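Notes, p. 3: input format for complexes.
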Amino acid sequence: MGAELATGFDCRACGKHHEILPLSFSVKAPDAAIRIPEEEQASRVVLTMDQCVIDQRDHYVRGRIAVPILDYPDEPFIWGVWAELSPKDFTRTNELWRTEGRENEPPYTGWLASEIFPYHNTSNLKLRVQTMPVGRRPHLFIEDGEHPLAREQRSGITLARVQEIAELILHAGDSV
Ligand SMILES: [Zn+2]
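Output follows (176 residues plus zinc ion):
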């Protein structure tokens, strides 16, 4: 779990008070890797905290979609999600993994490899993948400026929207 606000919030989904308001949500693997049956995982998927390769063919890096919070400028809201890269850019990413100044690398083109629940249809959205300084995950930018997530990334969101996102995600698995 990443950043959070200890102020908590009164949840409209369950009617209870939650002690913390999460300022980030993340997934530990690309959706394509999660879908692979348990018994095939070991032979087909290589997964670390930051990288994933499936069938030695599909290459992914973990990145961050940062969304400014207009009424909480201390830090952005973060979607910790996965981007598919071309084999060439994935190799380049590895070559530069510990290279100081790697953030000067021109952006790569990637494709969002995570469905982000509150938005629908985020899989395969085209991305600009900006390399960050050593030790930090790349920043991802949605190329389709009209997509709701792109608009929020560009214009920012309010803490009220952060709460709405939390209500959706924290109770996504609840039976109705
Ligand atoms: Zn709740």
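Residues 29-156 form one domain.
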